[in-house]
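WARN retry 2 of 3 for item q-0093 after timeout on previous attempt; input resubmitted unchanged.
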Amino acid sequence: MNTTEILTSLTAAKEAHLPWLDYGMAILNGEDLLYVQAPVTCTDCNFGLWFYTEANSLRQIDGFQQIEKLHAEFHNKYDILFTHAHEAHKPRLFGKKKLLLQLNADYMELEESSILLIDKLKEVREALQAKEKLSQINREAV
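OK item q-0093 returned
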């Protein structure tokens, strides 16, 4: 893949990730869990499919291994949010407020995890752009 293709691929990966925050917000807002995206492993979502196929050739890029770790952590946090939502939506007399507070905390952790992942994608993207620009300057100097 050339640099332009890699940059396009990174943008597509970010776009594949973003709906998961919407799913998390839907959970937080009390959407029926039957209609909310159930948790999947980090290898089965669109981002994961990209990461373990198309992006496999990018693993030598600095920071790319951190993306894998951040992505797995995001899925873990989504799974926790989904599990706690199941508990919060069960009929109960006591403890409902505590569970709802926990859901809010879970979503905040999910959002923070997403920000870290997107920031790392941006960092890799910017490093590739800088490297490409330097390469272009060197080619013009010759």
